[in-house]
Amino acid sequence: MLDITTLLNAFPGYIAQGAIWGIMALGLYISYRLLEFSDLTVDGSFATGAAVTVMLIIAGWPAWAAMLAAVIAGMLAGLITGLLHTTLGIAPILAGILTQIALYSVNLHILGNKPNQAVSVDKYDLVLSLRTVNEAIIIALIFAAALIAAFYWFFGTEAGSAIRATGCNPSMAKAQGININFCKVFALSLSNGIVALAGGLLAQYQGFADVGIGRGAIVIGLASIIIGEVLAEAFFGKHMTFWLCLSSAVIGGILYYIIMGVVLWLKLPTNDMKLFTAIIVAIFLAVPYLKKNFKNSFFRLKLAEKKKAKEAAKNA
Predict the structure, then answer these.
(1) What gap in Å lies between CA 81 and CA 100, rounded to an integer?
(2) Could you report the per-residue pLDDT of 175-203, keeping only the tens digit for each?
(3) Could you say which DSSP state residue 207 is in?
(4) 112: which residues sit within 8 A by CB, 6+ positions away?
(5) How many CB atoms lie under 10 A from the CB of residue 1?
(6) Neighbouring residues of 231: CB distance < 8 A, sequence distance ≥ 6
(7) Domain spans of the chain, in order of start
(8) For 24-35, what is the HEC assignment?
(9) Residue 209 phi, psi dihedral angles, 5° rounding
(10) Which of 126, 198, 240, 272 lies 20 to 30 Å (CA to CA) from residue 207?
(11) φ, ψ for residue 118, nearest 5 deg
(12) Helix 4-29 and helix 42-58, axial crossing angle in degrees, nearest 10
């Protein structure tokens, strides 16, 4: 029998994890939406952020300094992907894959050639922890709100607008004197820095860093962005603003984990979680397309009806 109480008790945990992955989605939003760059580096840089954070905390660093170092490490990963693409002319997807593969070995070395490393809240002063879920939710949402505010400001500046112009129309941006290669490299560095920050937060939350912690991060991030955008457009329509677009990524991350939690609560096979994820993403991806086609079909039908009415009036 399914117990609704069990699901409700698990909700805070889903919200906390969803908020952390929503921060990751904010980083991915820069490359995927603003830069129009399919960056697969994030699967590796997420794990890099987790590994750097945990190992530095174990080494005696304060958690905030460890996370700052994780951001820098993530930015370096994004820098490599950007240089592979802009300097060597490697396609975006391949550049991200190459960096992601290389990061697997790098992350193993960071973790002391071990697949995982634990960091206990009993021994170290962590920013957030699974032990205090409600506090973790608040802290994760504060991080998300601060990043949304910072992005809203930065992408309204001249430098931020240059990045958005590069993603929108590289040829036009180049014609306007914008260094599109620099914009791509900087945006990818910033994107992966935020992804690494999310990895550091998740490692502290769950109490360990694993070399495979970022596996599937790109799918979860895209799912968060798409779910958030679809729902935001449904509620706000043409009134969507940039800060709502950023906020929807975080909301999408929370909703994604709630959906996954419901799937687990329904006792569906855990081995099929990737399949369920793919189905959910496919459904939300299809919604805008089907909605557009439905509107077009309805519009054509109304035109046909008006045309018939005019012809009937003439014949009469």
Answers:
(1) 9
(2) 989 999 999 999 999 999 999 999 999 99
(3) T
(4) 55
(5) 2
(6) 248, 251, 252, 255
(7) 4-215
(8) HHHHHHHHHHHC
(9) -115, 135
(10) 272
(11) -95, 150
(12) 110
